[in-house]
């Protein structure tokens, strides 16, 4: 219990990295003879090696040093309790934020969407000598323990538990938050092969009929494109006739290219950020506006050649058509666009000049031009109606009115007819629709004999029997100055022989009418 006989090792404290101190002892007052000691005279937790790492160690005199002290102080018999140990404490060194050697840095990682998740690691500063085993579970991603799978850049940091493990494994330093540096985990977009249908966003073909409402345009997503967006017709563009793209939906008949607008494509890209979607991943389609069907029985859908009547010798008229109200696009037509057919069904070369009744129709090429100018309607040849071109004789003698069946026609009289009424034989002819003019000369009247039987017959919608009779009322207004003129030429008759020729010609014409009637029956 006598403190004056004690030899006590003095405590020592340093900070990690400081110079090793010189260890000493304190002698009790009765231990008057001191000995020289060095650090080799001490043990540290029983070891002769002086510690360098942070910790608290028991420091004691070794046996050799104790014997030296006992030998120098023979007046006392010392016991083990007279030699009291001390402590050697090494405190951790606080790290310097500027010292890269005390940093633990998470390594950056980058993959392409769809690749396997990488193994996350760290890089230790040189002073952080004790490393620990790590797994992906030791990291956080934007603060979450869940490893991201979608495209993006995420902050990767060590979680609190693993930081504690690293600090424990490296006790020589007092670490701060700044010693643990986060990394980045980047998942880049996967470029999609446009030749694979699963990687496409395809606009669907659509169609409507002119005059109907536009359809709702849609797209088909490939299986890879999992995030769909709501689209409406304003998200589509249409290529006009000039090749330009517009968001105005076409209304005229035709076939148009249709595609997603750039803004709509961007919406889909944003909804599917895991993939690189290029313009070629967005496929266009076809939008068809079909022509509206027409009803040839409706005048609104037809193109009708206008009827024309002239007198022989008049100037050739300009032939025209009347368009139905639906056909708003008209084309320029000339007489060359029309074809003329006579009573016998023969096509006349050019515009007829001989008296008669002709069917006038538009040539196929003219019809085609009108069809092309009005593509919104499905015009057929049935929509093009023919007209009638009538050329009458010059009326120098009088007018005979013929009533035949349902058709009333004006029959130019023989210019050489005399005054008075004539009774003659009745002739009947069956004609078809579109038959032309039949001119007969029933005979020449020199003033009071048989009247002229020159008949104009126009065919009705079906076969029509037109009766040409000498019972026609001949309102002859000619004068005797015409008595000596030929019925064929209206030229002056120079001999009575020509009168006989005229009568013969008339009889032959009448015979021809009867023969035709017989053949038709």
Provide a descriptive summary of the structure in words.
The chain has 521 residues and is of the alpha/beta class. The protein has five domains: 3-91, Ribosomal Protein L9, domain 2 (Roll), CATH 3.10.430; 100-188, Ribosomal Protein L9, domain 2; 197-290, Ribosomal Protein L9, domain 2, CATH 3.10.430.110; 299-391, Ribosomal Protein L9, domain 2, CATH 3.10.430.110; 394-520, no CATH class. It has five helices and 41 strands. A hairpin with a 5-residue loop joins strand 31 (338-341) and strand 32 (347-348).
- What ranges have pLDDT less than 50 throughout 5 or more consecutive residues? 398-521
What is the number of helical segments per DSSP (H or I, 4+ residues)?
Answer: 5
Using only C-alpha atoms, the radius of gyration works out to 61 Å
The major sheet is characterized as: 5 strands, mixed
What percent of residues are in strands?
25-35%
Q: Helicity level, as a percent range?
A: 10-25%
Any idea what the shape is? rod-shaped
Termini separation:
167 Å
* Class of secondary structure makeup: alpha/beta
**DSSP strand tally:** 41
How many domains comprise the coordinates?
A: 5
Strand order of the largest sheet: 19-26-23-21-22
Q: What do the pLDDT scores average to?
A: 82
What would a concise description of this structure say?
With 521 residues, the chain is α/β, with parallel strands linked by helices. It has 5 domains: 3-91, Ribosomal Protein L9, domain 2; 100-188, Ribosomal Protein L9, domain 2 (Roll), CATH 3.10.430.110; 197-290, Ribosomal Protein L9, domain 2; 299-391, Ribosomal Protein L9, domain 2, CATH 3.10.430.110; 394-520, no CATH class.
């Amino acid at each position: 219990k006598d403190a004056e006989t004690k030899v006590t090792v003095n405590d020592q404290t340093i900070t990690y990295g400081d110079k090793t101190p010189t260890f000493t002892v304190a002698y009790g007052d009765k231990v008057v003879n001191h000995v020289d000691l060095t650090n080799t005279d001490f043990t540290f937790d029983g070891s002769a090696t002086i510690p360098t790492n942070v910790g608290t160690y028991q420091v004691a005199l070794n046996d050799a040093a104790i014997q030296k002290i006992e030998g120098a102080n023979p007046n006392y018999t010392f016991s083990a309790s007279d030699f009291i140990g001390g402590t050697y404490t090494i405190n951790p060194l606080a790290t310097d934020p500027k010292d890269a050697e005390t940093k633990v840095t998470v390594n950056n990682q980058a993959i392409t969407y769809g690749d396997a998740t990488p193994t996350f690691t760290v890089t230790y500063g040189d002073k952080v000598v004790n490393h620990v085993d790590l797994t992906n579970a030791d990291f956080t991603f934007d603060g979450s323990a869940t490893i991201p799978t979608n495209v993006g850049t995420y902050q990767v940091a060590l979680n609190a538990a693993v930081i504690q493990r690293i600090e424990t494994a490296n006790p020589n330093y007092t670490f701060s938050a700044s010693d643990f540096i986060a990394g980045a985990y980047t998942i880049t977009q996967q470029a999609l092969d446009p030749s694979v249908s699963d990687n496409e966003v395809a606009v669907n073909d659509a169609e409507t009929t002119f005059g109907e409402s536009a359809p709702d345009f849609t797209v088909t997503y490939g299986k890879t494109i999992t995030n769909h967006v709501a689209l409406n017709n304003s998200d589509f563009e249409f290529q006009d006739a000039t090749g330009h793209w517009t968001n105005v939906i076409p209304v005229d008949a035709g076939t148009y290219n249709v595609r997603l607008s750039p803004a709509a494509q961007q919406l889909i890209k944003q909804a599917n950020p895991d993939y690189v979607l290029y313009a070629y991943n967005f496929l266009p389609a076809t939008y068809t506006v079909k022509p509206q069907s027409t009803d040839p029985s409706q005048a609104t859908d037809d193109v009708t050649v206008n009827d024309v009547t002239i007198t022989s010798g008049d100037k050739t008229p300009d032939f025209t058509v009347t368009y139905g109200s639906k056909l708003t696009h008209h084309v320029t037509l000339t007489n060359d666009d029309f074809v003329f057919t006579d009573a016998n069904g023969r096509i006349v070369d050019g515009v007829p000049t001989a008296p008669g009744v002709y069917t006038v129709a538009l040539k196929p090429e003219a019809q085609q031009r009108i069809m092309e100018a009005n593509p919104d309607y499905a015009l057929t040849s049935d929509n093009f109606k023919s007209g009638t071109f009538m050329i009458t004789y010059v009326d120098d003698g009088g007018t005979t009115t013929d009533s035949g069946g349902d058709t009333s026609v004006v029959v130019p009289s023989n210019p050489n007819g005399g005054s008075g009424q004539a009774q003659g034989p009745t002739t009947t002819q069956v004609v078809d629709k579109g038959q032309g003019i039949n001119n007969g000369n029933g005979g020449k009247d020199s003033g009071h004999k048989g009247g002229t039987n020159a008949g104009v017959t126009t065919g009705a919608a079906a076969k029509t029997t037109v009766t040409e009779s000498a019972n026609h009322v001949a309102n002859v207004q000619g004068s005797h100055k015409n008595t000596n003129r030929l019925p064929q030429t209206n030229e002056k008759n120079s001999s009575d022989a020509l009168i006989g020729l005229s009568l013969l010609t008339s009889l032959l014409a009448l015979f021809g009418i009867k023969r035709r009637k017989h053949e038709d029956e």
